Amino acid sequence: MYHWDFGAVWVYHKLLLSGLAYTIVYTVIVVAAGLAVGLVVGIGRVRAPRFIAGILRAYVEVFRCTPVLVQLIWFYYALPILTNIEMSPTSAAALSLTLYGGAFYSEIVRAGILGVDWGQTEAGLAMGMRNKQVMRRIILPQAFRHMVPPLMSQSIMQLKNTSLLSVIAVPDLLYQAQSAAHDSYRPLEIYTIAAVCYFVVLFPATLWSKRIENRLAKQDRSAA
């Protein structure tokens, strides 16, 4: 029978904490960048000329229909060969996860915009507003309420996706756990601690997302 010994791996706690901090900071960066990309692409798919909207759709489908792990490896190994631009593991991972997340965020934004009645746009234009003003002042504020729950769910998925960064040597939590496991010969304890760390971060975020979703649903029922 295996004898668990978490005390033997205490020496690696700072290494694991640094990996956890890196994971959280990295998640914040790729989520913020992905939201920016998703907002631009989502609006573009709805309001841009057909040719540009077609290009944006192609981008979305490529990133939605290929595994994020394949994208990470491609950006790190293949893109530098094609462009003659060297990329560090962190920059390749950031670019890959940003574009991957942006593709999914854009679909959420697009669905939110299309969910607002077209009459709202017509009313804004009749009042003399320009298309950009209508989008900023009328459409997006209404659409945002419906976007919040799926945007938060996708952001939680982005945090989970960071666990794949270890394949290109980005020093996230899983990478540091792998290093500690190889050094200590205690993989069960190390990976258990890593799993607990992910749970401690993800579970409150999931509860928070659910609470906001329930609150918005209650407000919608009250307004109705």
Give a short summary of the structure.
This protein has eight helices and no strands.
Helix/strand-derived class? Answer: mainly alpha
Rg is: 21 Å
Largest pleated sheet = none
Give helix and strand order, one letter per element, not per position. HHHHHHHH
**CATH homologous superfamily placement:** MetI-like
Tell me the CATH architecture: Orthogonal Bundle
Instruction: Please write the CATH class name.
Output: Mainly Alpha
Number of domains: 1
Give the count of helical stretches.
Answer: 8
> Between the first and last Cα atoms, what is the distance in angstroms?
60 Å
Low-pLDDT windows of residues:
none
Shape estimate: flat
What's the number of extended β-strand segments? 0
Classify the fold: give the CATH topology: MetI-like fold
Mean pLDDT: 89
What portion of residues is helical?
A: over 70%
Proportion of beta-strand residues: under 5%
Question: Describe it for me?
Answer:
This protein is mainly alpha-helical. It has one domain (6-222): MetI-like fold (Orthogonal Bundle). Helices cover 81% and strands 0% of the residues. The protein has eight helices and no strands.
Topology:
Blueprint: H1 13-47, H2 50-64, H3 68-83, H4 89-114, H5 118-126, H6 131-161, H7 173-184, H8 187-223
Any key phrases for this structure?
224 residues, mainly alpha, MetI-like fold, 81% helix, transport, amino-acid transport, transmembrane transporter activity, MetI-like_sf, cell membrane
